[in-house]
Amino acid sequence: MIIYQDCRYIRWDKPCKFHKEYGVHCESCKYYDKIDFRILIIKLDAPSDVLRTTCILQGLREEYRNSHITWLTRRESLPLFKNNPFIDNVLEYSTGSFIQIQSEPYDFVINPDASPKSAILVTIARGKIKRGFGYNEKGYVYPFNKEAQKWFKMGLFDSVKKANTETYQRIILNMIGLRPLNYEIIFNLDSNEREFAKNFASKHGISKMDVVIGLNTGAGGRWQNKKWTIDGYLGLIRLIKKELKGCKILLYGGPEEIERNRYLIEQENSLIDTGCHNTLRQFGALLDLCHILITGDTLALHMAVALKKKVIALFGPTSHTEIALYGRGKKIFADMDCLCCYRESCCIKPSCMEMITPQQVFSAIKEVL
After folding, report:
1. 139 torsion bin: left (phi>0), alpha (psi -120 to 50), beta (else)
2. pTM (whole model) above 0.85
């Protein structure tokens, strides 16, 4: 009896799905898909960074056509890979996964982060070719290849970060040796998630004919000064209501935005609250209801871009240059020399986010509409 150990669908400890469904055996199976190249991607950090790094997947598939791709990440990012056609296996950051990557041979190992935790993992992984960052036996992180040096220096020196003119996507694609094409971020909803959003729209009287504008009022936990001001959002809401009659405005956020969003609803009761306790996938499904999303530099931005929404992105302490909107939006930032400071707190008044006005954002909405 022939057993194809190199088939994409083999499970070793149980029958594959085609044997279970059709009763086929390897020697006569028309679904046999030989794996010629094994790729491991290690990307652990914030879900927003994990999501935008999915831009490398299409390029990898085009370059290595019979490849098998495994992605190792933290638990909170695992839902991002559901329904992703380019991923064969997702490993959670755990002791079991560490053992697996030391046991399983890979042709290509990729780590685009200079954090010690991910650098250590890529160093212990069995791989013929490694790109990105590893961990030296003397106890420090170092770039594997010259193309990774730019990102390495950008992480160490604010002046280099500020001088950069390339998007994150272009930098990472170049780092791993792929053509710097406009590969999209990947986040695909399934039919149940679309039905969830459809039911929400029906409940709140949102029709396909309505213009729907979303306001994502948060900016993640670490960079609190990435958030636009509450007065800015309130002023924008009033402009939209005055100038765009009949427009539906949806509020988005997570647990940290409960009070913010509650205050806005108290001031303007026509707002539609999408809730602050949705799962990651539910949050994405509700974002899909928007025509335009106004957001800071956070997960919602990259998710909306992946869903091919129009985006008005508001920037302050983080780099607007690195963010790719794929021609579907506008970036707004203050005219200040200290932008892209990556400081978690700021003593400058008015701050960069306070300098952004409701009128600026509303003008951008009219442009993209």
Report:
1. left
2. yes
